[in-house]
Amino acid sequence: MSWSQWSLSFAAFLPSGAAAAAGAGAGAGSCGGWECERSAELDPVLRLRRGQSQFCDIPFFATSDEALLQGPELLNKAFVIRSGGKLNLPAFSMKRLRARAKDRNLVAKVGYSAEIVENGGGGTHDHPLNNFLDSMMHENRLFGGVQLERPYMFHRVEAVYSVVESEDVSIPDPLMSWNWTKDNTFQIFALGGPGSGVTWHDHRAAFETVAYGWKRWFLYPSDTVTLGGSMGEYAIDDWLRVVYPTLGADRAPLECVLGPGDLIYVPEEWRHAVMNLADTVAVSTQSLLVTEVRRNNMAMGPAQAALKGDPSQQSKLIELIEQAPLDNSDRISMAWMIAPGDPAGAEAELRAALEVDPWCLEAMNMLFRLLTEGHFTSPAPEPVLLHLLQDFKPYLFNNTRNMAANNMLAAYYKLTRSFKLEGKALRRNLELSAKKLWAGSGGPLLSEADWKQRIREAKQRFLEAKRTSSAASRATTEPQVEL
User: Fold this and answer.
1) Per residue in 241-292, pLDDT tens?
2) What are phi and psi of 306, to 5 degrees?
3) Checking DSSP bridges between strand 60-62 and strand 79-82, what pairing results, if any?
4) Which site from 137, 198, 258, 343 is most exposed, i.e. has the minimal number of CB atoms within 10 Å?
5) Is domain 3-290 given the CATH code 2.60.120.650 in the classification?
């Protein structure tokens, strides 16, 4: 059964009250001291879909639909239970968190959307929790006049030093019937202001409950390509501004806005991302159970390790890639490993990855490096490189916070003798490096001193081209004197 057929078939079972509940999350009222009304100051592309502020593409249920929710087919489909969360709400109030922060000297593990994914699902920096609540949570960062994403607290619930206790969250009854217990799950506490979020990622099956606030969810089923979302190349706000507007209805993700008390279930291997629309407090519970789907993906690790020392394992890796032909992360891992001994094979894997997802910056950057850093007998001729970068340019042009994208743009402008634009792209990277504003997998490629040197070289090329042009212009306008 296709996703759309499944969604429609379950919509037919919804009680009349559940249809009305789809328009707004239940549990609105007391905000626990948080600013939990949706922020009208957010960029419209971050908070609206075609002008709408409330939408949900996935089936939703009421808590009274318990019999439906126990169907085994739901294990592999996303759904929402309106007012389905079982939380000890007072534990998530601003007052309670501040008291615990003071009593226990709690720290907040904080990061930005791509950093959290690269760090395996946790904040990357420790800050006193009250400092995060007082200032960091609503900090404003600008780049090129655009408000950037805000920091997000993403913190695993552990022992007595946690922000909340494990008993403050209960596993909903329907999921208990799937053998989810406290022993085979773990929890992540998430707190962020409007404009914070997490970029594209996947993991084992999970459900998340919103205590306070509003959260916009984006999801792709496991058998669907996540355009621009396979390798963490984009922060979620950049993805929404750069990639999302280009997607037709057939390539766009499923979406749903969750409100206070709502619960969402995300099957394993479904790629997803979130954007907070207000001060939002939530708890995610992830399963530790390993299913056959996850076991196949986990087999990639040993195969990759073995390949480094044993080329005979290459066939195993190819077999795994063929089982999941739309998973670009596997293809790119393959390309990295075989590049030293088989650059042509690596190039083929990267071009295949770009056929699947032309927004995949990781594949673009690796292919660019493969052709310019001597992996072949010699670097690619300039016409070959220019043709490659011309193909990439539409996908690089607006992704100004990814340093790898700016670096490739600078190379393109150098080849086309647009030296002023080359310098502009390089200066963007210098600013990103100095202010630590980069996002996605294109992190610091060079030191600030190296970027400054490359900017000086671009300026010299620009001035030399200008002098040459002026000299040529004078030569054509000066009168010719006959001797």
Assistant:
1) 999 999 998 899 999 999 998 999 999 889 999 999 999 999 998 888 766 5
2) -65, -35
3) parallel
4) 343
5) yes
How far, in Å, CA of 421 to CA of 413, rounded?
Answer: 6
Cα 377 to Cα 348, 368, 370, distances in angstroms: 17, 15, 11
Q: Is the dihedral of CA 298, 300, 303, 305 positive or negative?
A: negative
Maximum alpha-carbon separation in the chain: 104
* CB-based burial, 290-328: b 16+ in 10 Å, e otherwise: eeebbeebeebeebbeebeeeeebbebbeebbeebeebb
Q: Rank 12-21, 375-384, 440-449, 453-462 by mean pLDDT and report only the highest.
A: 453-462
Q: How far apart are CA 360 and CA 354, in angstroms?
A: 6
For 227-238, what is the mean pLDDT?
A: 84
Which residue from 211, 250, 253 is spatially nearest to 228, judged by alpha carbons?
253
What are the residue boundaries of the structural domains of the chain, listed by start?
3-290, 381-470
**Angle, to 10 degrees, between the axis of helix 403-415 and the axis of helix 361-372?**
50
Average pLDDT in the 182-201 region? 90
- Residue 229 near residue 273, CB atoms below 8 Å: yes
Task: Taking residues 146-156, report their average pLDDT.
Answer: 90
Cβ-contact 264, 205 below 8 angstroms = no
CB-based burial, 35-45: b 16+ in 10 Å, e otherwise: bbebbeebeee
User: 306-322 pLDDT, tens per residue?
Assistant: 455 565 666 666 666 66
Distance, CA of 360 to chain centre = 12
User: In this structure, what DSSP letter does residue 158 have?
Assistant: -
Please, are residues 187 and 283 in contact by the beta-carbon 8 Å criterion?
A: yes
Report the alpha-carbon distance of residue 255 to residue 31 in Å, rounded.
24
Q: What is the DSSP letter of 479?
A: P
Greatest mean pLDDT among 29-33, 39-43, 357-361: 357-361
Measured in degrees and rounded to the nearest 5, phi and psi for residue 476 equal -85, -20
Cα–Cα dist 241/250, whole Å:
19
How many C-alpha atoms does 280 have within 13 Å on its Cβ side?
37
Which pLDDT score is estimated for 27? 40
Decide if 124 contacts 111 (C-beta within 8 A): yes
Identify the CA nearest to 195 among candidates 50, 24, 39.
39
What ranges in 310-447 are assigned the alpha helix state H? 314-323, 328-338, 343-356, 361-372, 382-396, 403-415, 419-435
- pLDDT of residue 295 exceeding 60: no
Which is higher by pLDDT, 365 or 469? 365
